[in-house]
Structure formats: C-alpha cells, structure tokens
Amino acid sequence: MALTLLTLFIFWGAHGQSKMRVDSADLWKRITGLEDRIWADFPKTFVETQSVLDQAKNSDCYGCEGRALMMVGKFYWVNGQYNQGLELFHQSVTIARSIDDYDTWSKATDLIANTYYYQAYYDSAEHYFQKAYQIAEKVNDLEGMIRILYNTSLMYHRKGDFEKTIEYIFKGEQIQNKLPQSQRHIEAMGAMGSLMIDSIYYREAINDELKNLNRYITIKDSTSIYNAYYNIAKSYRQLLNHKMAARYFIKVCDIMEKTGLIPEWNMVAKDYSDANMKDSAFYYHYLGKQNIKRTTAPNVSYAHELLGESHLHFNQLDSALYYYNMALNMSYAMNNRITFTGIHRRLVRVHTLLGNYKMAEYHLNTGLGLAKEVALIHEKNLLNEGKFLYETKGDYKKALFYSEKFKDYLDSINRQEVAVNLTRLQAEFKTAKKESELKAVTQNYQLTEEKIKTRNLQIGLSLISLVLFGSFGGFYFARFRRKKKMSEVLERQNKEKEALLHEIHHRVKNNLQIISSLINIKSRSASKETAELLSDLNNRIYSLGLIHEMLYKSDHLGAVDLRAYLTEQSRLTLASLELERGAVELQLDIDEVEANFDVAIALGLISNELITNAMKYAFAPTQQEQIIHVALHKISDQLHFVISDNGCSGTIPEIEKSFGLRFVEQLVKSKLNGKLNITYNNGLRLEMMLQPKI
User: Fold this and answer.
1) Among 308, 320, 317, 333, which Cα is nearest to 81's?
2) Which residues of 611-629 are buried (b: 16+ CB within 10 A; e: fewer)?
3) CA 496, 502, 504, 507 torsion: positive or negative?
4) How remote is the C-alpha of 74 from its chain's centroid?
5) Alpha helices (H) along 81-159
6) Is 555 in a helix, a strand, or coil?
7) Strand 684-690 and strand 638-645: pairing?
8) What CA–CA distance (Å, rounded) separates 680 from 655?
9) Quick check: 406 and 384 in contact, CB under 8 A?
10) pLDDT (tens digit, 9 = 90+) per residue, 107-148?
11) Beta-sheet pairing, 627-635 with 585-590
C-alpha cells in the first residue's frame, strides 16, 4: 500500500511539473459549457473546442484533460466522424477511470455505445451500454441511468426485440419518477413510434407540462421552458396532432435562436407536412436551409431526407429523388447504416412512382440485404415497398410473395407487442392481488390480536375492580388507556385502507393505459370505419382513466371535483379531435361541485360522447365560428348539465335515433335519475336535469 501511494505521488509530481498551472474550476466550466453548445454554430464552436482541449492538455488539471477529450470526441461524433470520436472517447475513459471521475467515465462510455449503435454494430453497443449503466449506478447518477436505459431501449427497438424495448423503457420511467418535474424528458418514449402510442400517457404528459409552464416562465428558467415545450411537441406528435406539434416545435426553435443554438426548423416542417399543410411545410424547410452551413453533417443529411419526404408527400417526385440521393450519399460517407437503409426504402417508392422499376428493384434488394443485419423495422417496411413495386409493375406473383412476407412480419411484431402488454397486465394484476391478500391477512391478524388484548384487558380490569372496588381513579385511567389504544388501532387501519384504495386507483389507471395501447395497436391494421370506432372507444377509456388518476392523487378518495374533472376531460377530448375536425372554441361554465365516483364517471362519459358527436357532425367545413359550450350548475339538490353547439347537426328525429344519444339517455335515466331535453335552434342543445346521490 505504501509503495502504491509513493508511486502515485511521484507520478503526480512529475505530471504536475510538466504542466502549467491554471484555474481548474474555470477550465472545467468552459469545457462543460462547450458541451452544451454542441448545437450552436458548429464550425465556429468546433474550432473553440480544439483550443480548449490544447489548454487542458497543457494544464495541471488531469481531470480537465479527460473531460475535454470527451467533449471534442462528442463534436466529432455529432458530425458523423465516428472513428475520430471513438478514439477520443477511449482516451477520455482511460483518464476518467484512473482518477475515479465517474461522471465523465459513464458519459464517455455511453457515447462509445451510441457510436456503435448509430452504425448498427449492436453487440458492441449492448456491451458498452451495460458498462455505462454500471458506472452510473455505482454513484447513483439518476439522470445518467435514465439516459443510458432509454438509449438502450432505442437500440433494442431497432433490432426488433420489443420485449427488451419495453423492459428498458419502464426501468427508465421508474427512475425518472424520482427526478424533479423540470428534469424529465419523454424524447426516448416518443422515438418508440407505434410501439408506445398511448393516448392516456401522452395526454397526461401534455397536461402536466402545461401546468408547470407558468411557473417556469415566472422564474425565467429557460432550460425548463425549453424542455416543457419539447415534451409537449413530442407528445402531440405521438397523438398524431401534427398541427399542435408544429406550434410547440416553433416555440422550441424560438428559444434555441434566442440562446444562440441552431433552430430545428425541419422538425416544424415535418409536422406541417404530416398535417398536409404544404405552404407551411416548405416555408420552414426554407428557414432550415438557411442554417445548413452552420450545422453538422448528420443534420444536413437529415434535413435533405426530410425535404425528400415532404416532396414525396406532395407528389413532387423529381425533387424527392434529388434530395433522397443527396441524403443517401452523405449517410454512406458517415457509415450511418441505420439511416441509409431507411433511405433505400424511400427510394423504392420514388422510383416506382416514376416508373423506374430497375432502380426500384436495385434499392429494394440493397435495402433488404442491409436490413437483415441493421433493423427489423426497415426490413418490414421494405417488404411493404416490394409489394407496392410489383403491384404497380403488374408482376402479381412477386407482389403476393412480398405481401405474404410483410403480413408475417406485421403479425409477428403485433404478437410481440400484444404479448408484452398482456404479460405486463397479468403481472400487475397478480401483484395487486397478492398485495391485496397480504393486506387482508395483516388486517385480520391485527384485529384478532387487538381482540385478544381487549379481552385480557377486560379480565384484568374485572379482577382489579373486585380487589380494589374503591379505586375509581385506577379504573377510569385504564378505561381511558384502552379507548386511546383502540382509537390508534382504528386510525392505523383506516390509513392502511386509504393507502390500499390509492394503490387500487393507480393500478386501474395503469391497466386502462395498457388497454388503450392494445386498442391503438389494433386500430393501425383496421379499416377506417373500425379505426374511428376504436378511437371513440379510446376516448371513453381516457375519461375513466382520468377519474382514477384524480382519485389516486387526491387526499379525499370519496369525492371528485367536477369542475376540475370536466374541464380537463372536455379540453383533452376536444384536443384529440381538433386536427381532423379543425379548431373549435370551447366555452366552459362549471360550478365548484363535488360528487361521488359513479356520478363523475357518468358525467364524464356523457361529456365525451356529446363533444365527440359535435366535433364529428355539428359543423360545416365552411363554418367560420365553431363553438361548443359546456355548463354545470347546482340548483338545490339537482344538477343542471347543458352541452350545446352552434352547428347544423341535422333533424332532431335523426339525432335521437343515433347510438350516442341513446347511450347518453340511458346514463341520464339509469345512473343520474334525470331527464334529457333536446332542442335545435341555431345549433343543438342537450339539457339535463339530474338528481343523483352526490
């Protein structure tokens, strides 16, 4: 031990003599500050990173040198220069490990893993992700652990291993709940694509972020404001509300521009393109192209890929071909195998539509050869493009072959998704059941124990009263003690029951989320009519899930705040339909009323049904002012509930025959002991006088 310490002392002494002394804290601050500027003017900032690395190497701060190596390696990495980045990351790991700098060690190892992942060398990526996580876990670095888990989940999703994808997502979510709200991110969840489209999850994320935004704006916390806008935009994209997603990505870009970063205008353009807003899409593509010389090579490649996507979407095929070919050449130059495999798929579509069948077959075969090693998702999509190619070409034998292979892949993926979700559902049900049984056994044991104690106490008191008949003071004291003890026992049991009810509401909400996910999976392969029915069903499930969410968070399990519940439920029902039906003004006039669980559920289902029907059928496409009004007032022992619109819904006999109105009428009469009155005058008005037990 003494020899080791002596050796280290001599090493540090020799090392320090050859370096110039600097303010280590200031140098470290400059290095980490440059890490945050990675999306600033890239050529200019990259020159600055090289200068800071030279200073770190010539300083007496060995840790600064290790961190600076990682920082410069990261700049190489984001620019698609993977080999140069890997070399510097390994040097950084060597230094960080030697001085127990766990933060740099973990982050540099994670970057090594991501470098291999981007090039689709999955075995190496998996090895380094595991190492990075072990290092972060050793020092309880929660943010680092979450980042690594989500990166790992992305890798498994590319590979097509959905069971491990889900496993790593939920590991990250469990840890993320320990972080402050302002530090949470849903970017990796959003990147899961169809696997994680969960309307309840993303609606709740939007609601939570909107609640926190005012506080962030008040305290001028730009980082938290940026994160909130980004999370909201990602959530709207996952809910396929691309117009709202674009609006929030614009807010993200505005903050980036104000803080000297390069705005991601192409993200805005992508959502406007998906929303079929051609002029807006190309306007923001134009803004993105203005910064193209100031950003990284992968960003330039991605910008061209998105331009190709927008031109293809709007049937401008020659332009799409031009931009896709540019993106393909750039991705090959960087050996970004995941990206160029996906571009081959898009080129199959473009060449097929142009009638260039030989080129389409070339890209199909090249893409399929790569996809077997790179990504299951790309292979599935390429098979679908093969089906489209040969159907267009008129070679129906080959079209059938690709169609069957695509169907097999689709069935396989859906089976895995459903199996994963059902396994999770069963596990949660069994866990809840065991916990419930354990609680019941514990309570019965405690009750029996208290009965025995009470009986023994009664016997003891009887003996004492016989022996010391005149000692009234002792008797009353013992009686007081007994009552106090029984009161404590009852209070403890009540708390346990309340905790159990909280847990039940939480688990019901989670199970409703899973059912929502399964419905979304089914709707992707269903017809348009079936998909609409499933979407309506999902909105009803959301109304149920929202009740359980509010009760889980509430201190009063027996009562629901109808103003808060109906306000949130109606706004989010409207938001989920706004993209397809257009913008509608929601007017709310709701009293502060508390009701029990059954009444709240019935009112939520009625509100969801009537708002959905209004959005679908009430308004003409050319109608300028579109309004839905929701009012709830308590008059004596009755609730006056009104939902109306200013649309042209049709004749009252037709409306009364609809399933939605019959469903509402049944709820009004059987659940709420009320009457329903329908009138039509410059819009449909449904008035309900309810007399429930609230």
Assistant:
1) 333
2) bbbbbebbbeeeeeebbbb
3) negative
4) 26
5) 82-98, 102-118, 122-138, 142-159
6) coil
7) antiparallel
8) 10
9) yes
10) 999 999 999 988 888 889 999 999 999 999 999 998 889 889
11) parallel
Q: Which of 127-131, 391-395, 543-547, 670-674 has the lowest mean pLDDT?
A: 543-547
Strand order across the 585-590 sheet? 585-590, 627-635, 638-645, 684-690, 675-680
**Start-to-end C-alpha separation, the chain:** 75
* Cβ-contact 256, 230 below 8 angstroms: no
560-694 architecture in CATH? Answer: 2-Layer Sandwich (3.30)
Question: Alpha-carbon distance 246 to 230, whole Å?
Answer: 10
Rounded to the nearest angstrom, the gap between the alpha carbon of residue 314 and the centroid of all alpha carbons in its chain is 29
Q: For residue 296, what is the enclosing H or E element?
A: none
Does residue 572 contact residue 545 with C-beta atoms inside 8 Å? no
What one-letter code names the amino acid at 233? A
| Amino acid at position 391, single letter | E
Q: Are 614 and 647 in contact (CB under 8 A)?
A: yes
Tokens standing for residue 316: 């401008």
**Cβ atoms < 10 Å from Cβ of 686:** 22
The residues spanned by each domain of the chain are 560-694
Could you tell me if residue 295 is left (phi over 0), alpha (psi between -120 and 50 degrees) or otherwise beta?
Answer: beta
Q: Contact at 8 Å (CB) between 623 and 585? A: no
Q: What sign results for the dihedral spanned by CA atoms 449, 450, 453, 458?
A: negative
Q: Name the band, by pLDDT with cuts 50, 70 and 90, for residue 238.
A: confident
Question: Partners of 642 in the beta sheet?
Answer: 631, 687
Radius of gyration of the chain (CA): 31
Beta bridge partners of 350: none
Residue of 71, 24, 82 lying closest to 46 (CA atoms)? 71
Helix or strand run (H / E) with residue 690: strand 684-690
Over residues 518-542, the pLDDT tens digits come to 666 666 666 666 666 666 666 666 6
